[in-house]
Amino acid sequence: MQQRYLVGTGIVLFPIDAESPRQAIACLKQMIDARRHERRNAKIGMSLVKALDEGTLNFGVFDATRTHLLAGELFGEYQEPATRALADQLSALVPEAIYFSLPV
Q1: Is residue 70 in a domain?
Q2: Of 1, 5, 85, 87, which sits with the fewest C-beta atoms within 10 Å of its C-beta?
Q3: Using a CB cutoff of 8 Å and minimum separation of 24, what contacts does 65-70 make?
Q4: Considering the domain boundaries, does residue 44 fall inside one?
Q5: Poorest-confidence range of 15-24, 30-39, 59-68?
Q6: DSSP string computed for the chain
């Protein structure tokens, strides 16, 4: 059964319907990859395509209300549950209350 997740990278959150946090990341990666073939995309810039190609794009998966950081991908390594190391890389997206609830 699909759920709504918010998948963040850089400073942008994308609403994604998926069956799991891992699948939500995969869906966003597909969207970013598809961007390279589009002339314009208001939500996904070419910098995300470049970062995905270079393996430097980190992802955080939040619940639909952005009250929990459920999982993510840090330097290509999937992690569930998310850690503070991931939150450090996504500091613009992670509210302070979530940050301090994560394991060190």
Answers
A1: yes
A2: 1
A3: 66/6, 66/13, 66/95, 67/98, 68/98, 69/94, 69/98, 69/102, 70/5, 70/21
A4: yes
A5: 30-39
A6: --EEEEEEETTEEEEEEESSHHHHHHHHHHHHHHHTT-S--SS--HHHHHHHHHT---EEEEETTS--EEEEEETTEEESS--HHHHHHTTTTS-HHHHTTS--
In this structure, how many other beta carbons lie within 10 angstroms of the beta carbon of residue 56? 11
C-alpha to C-alpha distance for 37 and 35, rounded to whole angstroms: 5
Alpha carbon distance 48, 33 (integer Å):
9
* The two three-digit tokens of residue 17, written as one number: 């319907």
Residue 52 near residue 29, CB atoms below 8 Å: yes
This prediction's pTM: 0.92
Q: Which range of residues forms the domain containing residue 91?
A: 3-99
pLDDT, averaged across the chain:
93
